[in-house]
Amino acid sequence: MNFITKKFQELTTTELYQILQLRSEVFVVEQDCVYQDIDFKDQKALHIIGFKEDKIVAYTRIFKPGDYFEKASIGRVVVAAKERKFGYGHLIMKASVSAIENNFKVDEITISAQKYLKKFYETHQFKQVGEEYLEDGIPHIKMDKK
Hints:
Elements: E1 2-7, H1 13-30, E2 46-52, E3 55-63, E4 72-79, H2 88-104, E5 109-114, H3 118-122, E6 127-135, E7 138-145
Parallel strand pairs: 4-5
Antiparallel strand pairs: 1-2, 2-3, 3-4, 5-7, 6-7
């Protein structure tokens, strides 16, 4: 797995197409959730892209403090279904945390996590903050990492 970090303006049209296809495949089709994925936040984000044999199979977007939450944040964490058995979710999270530390010079991070992934995020030192809430009809929890 090879990871790169890019600003929105640096993404090629092919990369952007693959990212949007992967996000749609998982968040809309697999999770059967109709929601507005294209939210005009991508332009503010840095994009962490995981390539395997020139195909995007893992992805997140990260935000500096104040652009999404008060703290830096990671969102749209996604790995292609057939690639999950290889632990790429853990690798993309490590790459995302490192990218926040390197680009924004902070180590406090907030995420809005799907509740069923709580234990996954806890392995990356995130802790639940507050109560469960619904986001796009899916149970979520706010989690912080210090």
